Amino acid sequence: MLADVVDYVVGVDTHRDQHVLAVVASPTGAVVAQRAVVASGRGYAQALRFANQYAVGARVWAVEGAGHYGAGLARYLSGRGETVLEAGRAPRSERRLRGKDDGLDATRAARATLASGELALPRAGQRREAVRLLLLARRSAVDVRRHALVQLRSVIVTAPDQLRRELRGLPQQRLVERCSRLRRSNSRTPDELAITLVLRTLARRVQTATAEAADLETEILGHVRALAPRLLDEPGVGPIVAAQLIIAWSHHGRVRSEAAFARLAGAAPIPASSGQTTRHRLSRGGDRQLNRALHTVILHRRLHDPATKDYIARRVSEGKTTRDAVRLLKRYLARHLYRVLNNQAPQMT
């Protein structure tokens, strides 16, 4: 446990404008001092001086939101040789029973880290952060495109009969192109003019979002090839799935084992037996975007990979359901991809 090797843990509850610090002594968990600092370079320096005054000796920092509001503080401290750990939020039930304020949250983060046997390092790497931001922007563009397409088809349902008959039979790409070229005509009624304008606007929005997503995917592909090119050799792993794997894994040492990676991905088996039924299910926790990436790979391999097809058929012949066979594949895939990432650790920056 961490309490056996450090003298103090500095818990930090992070917010947009300020961070609250609590120094907790090991192993008693007693609060030595608390302080609030602004979320800026000046505040980070004050936080470090505060720790030098009240946490002299072996210490670590437990930072809530180390990938969001606490990212700047985590980078500042890591750059000055401090050990920074990522602290999870307290369960909602605990906050409801024991109350909540920033000082309590900072203390909870320190004490939970002190008692924990599973320590998480914050995500790191400038290129990895670039991949995260690019993936975030692409996801937004894809969402805009999907919503615009749904709205486009909904508007077609209420379009004039002649226009509706013309558009309903078109495939998606031709539909978008046709709607983007619609022109207003003075001979149409006000509602027909509005429908024409809305269809053209939505179609052009789809085209713009599609082009944005393609540009961002090209940029993501370049970073993935620089960070972990071997991921792209795996069946079913494209640039978007590879980017999500890199973001979750981050760097060597953050995820301590392939079992921990499977748990992070929501692919760790959990007993779900009852009576005469003996079975396992997959964890429903962890990083759901990472879980979705694994599921995308499995879907591709079920359709195109002969080895995956043979494996599922063999498991079904042994009495497993297809769903159980997919669960087993997810666990195997998490282990395999973790090893691929670990073997490329020197390039991950």
Give a verbal description of the structure.
The chain is an alpha/beta fold and 349 residues long. The chain has three domains: 2-115, Nucleotidyltransferase, domain 5; 126-227, no CATH class; 230-347, no CATH class. 57% of the residues lie in helices and 11% in strands. The chain has helices spanning 41-54, 71-78, 92-98, 102-115, 126-157, 161-168, 172-180, 190-227, 239-249, 258-264, 288-304, 306-317, 322-343; strands at 8-14, 18-25, 31-38, 59-64, 84-87, 269-271, 280-282. The strands form two sheets. The chain has a five-stranded mixed β-sheet with strand order 3-2-1-4-5. It has a two-stranded antiparallel ribbon with strand order 6-7. It is globular. It starts with 7 loop residues before the first strand and ends in a 6-residue tail after the last helix.
> What's the overall average pLDDT, rounded?
87
Count the domains.
3
Count helical runs. 13
**What Rg is obtained from the alpha carbons, in whole angstroms?**
26 Å
In short:
It is built from 13 helices and 7 strands. It has 349 residues and is α/β, with parallel strands linked by helices.
Indicate the topology:
Blueprint: E1 8-14, E2 18-25, E3 31-38, H1 41-54, E4 59-64, H2 71-78, E5 84-87, H3 92-98, H4 102-115, H5 126-157, H6 161-168, H7 172-180, H8 190-227, H9 239-249, H10 258-264, E6 269-271, E7 280-282, H11 288-304, H12 306-317, H13 322-343
Parallel strand pairs: 1-4, 4-5
Antiparallel strand pairs: 1-2, 2-3, 6-7
Helix pairs in contact: 1-2, 5-8, 5-9, 7-8, 8-9, 9-11, 10-13, 11-12, 12-13
List keywords for this structure.
Nucleotidyltransferase, domain 5, 13 helices, 57% helix, 3 domains, single chain, globular, 349 residues, alpha/beta, two-stranded antiparallel ribbon
